[in-house]
Amino acid sequence: MARPRANHVTVRAIAAEAGVSIATVSRVLNGHPQVAAETKELVRRAVERLGAPAPVRPGSRDGSVYVRCPYVLTDYFGVIVTSIADTLDLHGRRMVLGAGESAQAAHVLPGLGQDPTIAGAVLILPPEPDQELRALRATGFPFVVVDPRTTLPPEIASVSAANVTGARSVTAHLTALGHRRIGVIGGPTEWLAGEARMLGHTSALPDPRLRRSVEPTTGHGYRAAGELLDLPDRPTALIGFNDKVAVGILHAAHERGLRVPEDLSVTGFDDSNLSHSTIPALTTVRQPLEEMGRLAVSLLTRLLEGHTVDALHIELATQLVPRASTGAAPVRAHR
Questions:
Q1: How confident is the model over 235-293, as pLDDT tens digits?
Q2: pTM of structure
Q3: I want to staple 318 with a disulfide (CB 3.0 to 4.6 A). Which of 53, 100, 166, 262 is the partner?
Q4: Distance between CA 5 and CA 213 in Å, rounded?
Q5: Is 329 in contact with 177 (CB distance < 8 Å)?
Q6: Cβ neighbours of 313 (radius 10 Å)
Q7: Cα separation, 252 vs 221, whole angstroms
Q8: What CATH number corresponds to the domain at position 228?
Q9: For residue 37, is it within any domain?
Q10: 288: cis peptide before it, omega within 30°?
């Protein structure tokens, strides 16, 4: 007896008929390139047997883009989000923004693929664990990560800066100025950027006693700098994880009567507005933040249109910006 034709076919029904998982059906329906031809055929035949068109997630081509940035939109994050918004506008896409520190605990990823108004997402430094990102990718929902917190699997698209080479350029700049006792106040060790920058710095800095890992804020930079500057044989240069940490270093140096750069050289990372506002102006590493946002939208657009994307993990070049906060090592460093 023939099965009655259905007016509506659910993904769950197709999965049961084909003998595959719901996630696999979702990948097939969303045109994911990494699905075996035999699996696609199984799903196609299941749809035919059920006697109705397969459901296509509404909004998969013309819906809005969800941008998740669970941090305060100042300096670093604000520049990236603004660039994403401007680029989406050029593509005729509407942006739905989930931002602010209060959004860090919100469990939004599992429901993104179920929202018919959302076509895809850009996730900036996502705090979610890897398994949540993998689970979202397994559904076939298109998204791109900007500045990933941890190492991502090959199938998840991401855009970041070349942190290792940027950090090496800072260290090379300081050693060329004669500094040999250089301290590093790095970011959290569990962050990919924190690990990469520390690797770039410490490849030429042998003394682990001059290293600290902190939350990348001005206050934490200030406290860590105080510890290092109070050592009997203090560093002649301090490297901050970002410009905020470097501002904290400058405050600690000022309190101790140290002149920058005559007594202490200081560097940051990001080239945010802070780096132009300090006295002296801050030597830092420029990240292409606007380009990171633009490229994330470009990658997402290609995924939404079903194109094959060969380079899913993209690192953009950084640039050292020397300013007045670095100078020649003081004479005592050569004793």
A1: 999 999 999 999 999 999 999 999 999 999 999 999 988 899 999 999 999 999 999 99
A2: 0.78
A3: 166
A4: 62
A5: yes
A6: 15
A7: 9
A8: 3.40.50.2300
A9: yes
A10: no
